[in-house]
Amino acid sequence: MTLIRYLDWSDGQDRFLDVKQVLRRVFSWLLIQEDGDVQAALQLLEMLGERHGLFREGYGIGEFRRDLERDRIVSGTPGEQHLTPRGERFIRSDSLDQIFGGLKTAPGGDHAIPHAGESGDPLSETRPYAFGDDIHDIDYSRSMQNSMRRTPGAGFTLREDDLEVRERERFVSAATVLMLDISHSMILYGEDRITPAKRVALALVELIRTRYPKDALHLVLFGDDAREVPLRELPYAGVGPYHTNTQAGLRLARHILMRKKHSNRQIFMITDGKPTALWERNELYLNPFGLDPKIIRKTLNEAAECRRYGIPITTFMLARDPLLVDFVKQLTETNRGRAYFSSLNDLEQKVFVDFIRNRTRRVR
């Protein structure tokens, strides 16, 4: 006997919308995993949907595809569809929602950092004038009141200790380089480490664009060598048959940040392997076995250069091998930066907790 269950119209609509939301979330993950290949992501979604019952009667992969076209997330002819700019934004927003939305303990983006930024709008609070304050910030009404209280009934005289100035917001600006390891080990032994790492990067892009529009974010991919790529190419970045040239990545990141005028500069490095390569006399020197003293020394020298220019390195290591842990500790000590040894399950939250803790608004 066929069982038919009748639902309230609004309840049925909510459940139907939940199905769409689940499908979009899975599709977003698959797009990142498949380096932005819409066709491959849709084929995997259809397979998963049939296997796990994600689709409903009257709403299958064809209807889902038409919704993506209608919302301008994808465009093109069937079989040759690609992401639109809105589709790229969809991936970033979904990553941000999934990663940052669950940080219930994050302090709302405010906390102390080393250097204050430019002055913002005046506040209602005042304080005594100090040498070096801008005369345009003087609150003349409060200053004259101080003078009259000091000499009631006498002639008006204004002294320096009568002056008060209005406080101003101090907005912190930051320039960040996100270094992403695209060496072959990021997919070695059947473990997909590149997908969560890319989701972190995508969420960072969306976070900075929406909440910190005055900040700068640059993306550096490093394997045998390092190269800066436009942020919009991040969904399409994939792992290659590369070794890990950490020195080249740090050097390029440092050169990028030294050109920035922001009051705070930092490097986030997401990697799962030890340095195994470096360029020497225009040739790639390789040693994938153990910790090569030459490669380690030159990588640590680059970390020291970053420290000399006030650029901290935060390393997120997706491995727990004792040799790798020892190397990261050396790098962190040399740079006086930070290090996290993360599993694939908690990498995303640790990145965002640390990024948010390096944001603040100060009052001088």
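(ticket continues) Second input and output from the same batch:
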Amino acid sequence: CGLPIRRMRKNQVDVITLGCSKNLVDSEQLIRQFLANGYKVNHNSPAVNGEIVVLNTCGFIGDAQEESINMILQMVEAKKSGRIGQVYVMGCLTERFMDELKKEIPEVDGYYGKFNWKNLLTDLGKAYHHDPLGGNRSITTPAHYAYMKISEGCNRSCSYCAIPIITGKHKSRPMGELVAEAEALVASGVKEIQLIAQDLTFYGLDIYRRNSLAELLERLSDVQGLEWLRLHYAYPADFPREILRVMRERDNICNYLDIALQHISDRMLRAMRRRVTKAETYELLHDIRQSVPGIHLRTTLMTGHPQEAEEDFDELIQFVQDIRFERMGAFVYSHESGTYAYEQYEDHIPLAVKQDRMDRLMQTQEQIAGELNTAKVGKTLRTLIDRAEEEYFVGRTEYDSPEVDGEVLIARNEHPDLVVGNFYPVEILSADTFDLYGRVH
């Protein structure tokens, strides 16, 4: 993951964000602080040449850790050659492996965890500005959409997951604070808010002593000017079914739900400590589809968890064929120190087998996704334009989340006057496995 690096520029900060959208929100808060202190800031720039470089790292699984470490090493080399100035590292990787990183890569000027990044400002001799420049974040996404984190941490105990080690227990943000943030985002021009958390479906249990996600959705959807509200990431056990009524009743809540399921075999669900059964999962997905007609489901599945046999994987393939998820991702099991699986199981399945199973799973999904996309041909879908490329305007429907889902492509030579950030009715003319092609109706 190499970045071009040019001659260092004084008073410039380069912030590089790796990992998920929850990390992105942390970076946006840090960027706002640097701006309030008079710095020029670039985020994920194609050329890094700042007096200060801050890496916000991911530590979830092996591949993400490797990417983060490689980027740290690249920045250290650039520092040695004088092309950049100081290098600071924060985020999930440092929260989890602080001592090891300090020992192995001492050239970094400072390490910070996921939650104490404000100390970086102090160490630079800068002030932390409360509500700087009229807001607590500097949005790095296109101006018409933003991510909003409703909680930190996770109280689940899934066998494979290091997130609770990194983030600690679930901590919901107060509802009034979230509504105020949504109002501020909309006032700044945001039309779509992506609700994010490690586990949306636990919202409120810690501070209100009841599941409060349905109430939060109602209050957020009441914000004047909010066109779309999208939900990432739900958990199947103890799923708050009352949110389905709210999704059905509120036009500005997208018919879209990201719910990570990981597996379907009862044996594997027990080994993964998912606290849900195969029968309960099928019943829940049936209820979701019945309660919110037309909803598009995104899920994530895992292959190669310890004890997964070929018959367990066969059940997983059948599950994908039965449910026909509109959106699906998959990853191979990573044996992460500190997790239950690391302590209790041997990582006995060869990587080649894990990868082969994942490839077969995604091949199954690709056929399904292609068929479901083809079924949209001839329909007219409300489409939000995200960006303009050389040949196409690129947009999304309510069924598509940015970065991870398909897109709608509209030829610029047919519609040269479309405006990024606006909605248009788009007639779908053709489809491939992941993307749709259309014209403004």
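Agent notes: The mean pLDDT is 93. The first strand starts at residue 5 and ends at 17. Closing as not reproducible unless the customer responds.
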